[in-house]
Amino acid sequence: MKTLDKLFIMAAALIMAPAAVLAQQAMPAAGGPTAAAAQGKAAPATDAISARSQAAPASPDQASGPNMATGAEPSNAQVAQSSMASRATPTPGIGQPDGRAHLQEQFTPIGQEAAWFHNTILMPLITLISAVVLFLLLFVVIRFRRSVHPVPSRNTHNTVLEIVWTLVPVLILVAIAVPSIRLLAHQYSPPKADLTVKVTGNQWYWTYSYPDNGGFEIVSNMLSEADDKKRGEPRLLGVDERMVVPAGAVVKLIVTSSDVIHSFGVPSFWVKMDAVPGRLNETWFKVDRPGLYYGQCYELCGARHAYMPIAVEVVSPAQYAAWVASKGGTMPGAKPAKPLPDSTAASPVTNPQPAGTTTAPAGGTSATPTPTNVSAGTARPTGTSQSQATSRGI
Ligand SMILES: [Cu+2]
Which of 16, 94, 95, 269 could lock onto 285 through a cystine, CB 3.0 to 4.6 A? Predict the structure, then answer.
């Protein structure tokens, strides 16, 4: 009965709306803030996020992702080996925090769409709503203060206002929902994967398995502060063994944990996925720009939670093939496919390259690995004393 009453009153209110008059001046001020405040949380008054112009789009050569399965171009094997001998150096402000309060520059299609949504739609809207609410509050406080408005109005209803402050937020929510749901749909309908990497969180390091490349696994531990300095890595973000993926390839991540819940996240990829023991979670990314991108564990996972960084190195397909070979892995379909002109080139590790010949692949961008002071990095044969690369299956 009560419900029926309410429905009746609401219907009557809707019909009567045009005839209603503004009861008093206090009403907009009293109602406005409540309704508007329900829509947006307080936000900084300024939109500090500015789109920074980004350097170095990947060259078509480097971004030829879907061909990954066919393996390295033989002619590039030597080049790749020489490049892999030196680790990519981080670019300040890219793939890592730079001290400013903003989203990191995005390097995946999803990240770019999400950053656009945040910077172009959400932040201006939140700022506008906050400003309107603040204005209404100040208006009420000043205009209806006791000294100039001693007798308060006792009106409790204003139909027009009630409709307005219900409809406007609904329309705002609908307007937000369209790009929001579109973004969700894009996130959860990944294109066909070119490469799968299984990510396992451990207390307190990461392991990365490459089932498409023979199932080898690498163990990624944080570097000491001294090593960070020596290798030019950002503090607390450098690792001994990076996850290496090819540029332009759709990388599927299977994320799990061996002990407690961790969370694998790389902010500049818009990737964050919980690593839960006994479960396989899936996420993906596609990065065209070769370079180095950092992340961290995003779930409180124990005493050294803060010390399990993530470093993802995006390299050209040829460099990736050389890296896989250096870890004892294989490229899918690479076996009898194309006989190499130089049979020894199939094993880049055994093909010494004169030091200093750094013939970068075509289209070398700022992110292309350049000769650095670090050469003891990833290009070491499987089975060294480091035992970082084991050939366990997953
Ligand atoms: Cu963790």
Answer: 269
Question: Which H or E run includes 312?
Answer: strand 310-315
Secondary structure (3-state) at 222? strand
Ligand 1 centroid to residue 161 C-alpha, Å: 50
Q: What is the pLDDT of residue 48?
A: 33
Q: How far is the CA of 331 from the centre of ligand 1 (A)?
A: 30
Per the domain annotation, does 359 fall within a domain?
yes
CA of residue 315 to ligand 1 center, whole Å: 26
Instruction: Write out the residue range of the structural domain in which residue 137 sits.
Output: 2-44+110-145+157-187
- Ligand 1 midpoint to CA 295 (Å): 12
135 or 92, greater pLDDT:
135
User: Cα–Cα distance between 2 and 43 in angstroms, integer?
Assistant: 39
Mean pLDDT within 1-25 = 39
The predicted-structure confidence for 107-154, as pLDDT tens digits, reads as follows 999 999 999 999 999 999 999 999 999 999 999 999 989 898 888 888
For residue 213, what are its two tokens? Answer: 């490349």
Instruction: List pLDDT tens digits, range 27-75.
Output: 333 333 333 333 333 333 333 333 333 333 333 333 333 333 333 333 3
Residue 377 has pLDDT above 50, yes or no: no
* Cross-strand bridge partners of residue 275: 262
Cβ partners under 8 Å of residue 120, min gap 6: none
Q: What is the crossing angle of helices 2-16 and 159-187, to 10°? A: 100
Instruction: Assess contact for 58 and 290: CB atoms under 8 A.
Output: yes
Q: Report yes or no on 19 lying in a domain.
A: yes
Output the pTM of the full model.
Answer: 0.60
Ligand 1 centroid vs 299 CA: distance in angstroms? 6
232 shares its domain with 367: yes
Residue 12 has pLDDT above 70, yes or no: no
Token pair recorded at residue 92:
């300040």
User: Omega of the bond prior to 204 within 30 degrees of 0, cis?
Assistant: yes
